[in-house]
Amino acid sequence: MVWEIIIPHAVYEEVVAEGHNKPGSKELGDLVRQGKVKVLTPRDRALVEALHDPLGMGESEAITLAVEYKCTVILDDRIARLKAKSMELKTKGQ
Question: Which InterPro entries match (predicted)?
Answer without folding.
Answer: PIN-like_prokaryotic (IPR021799)
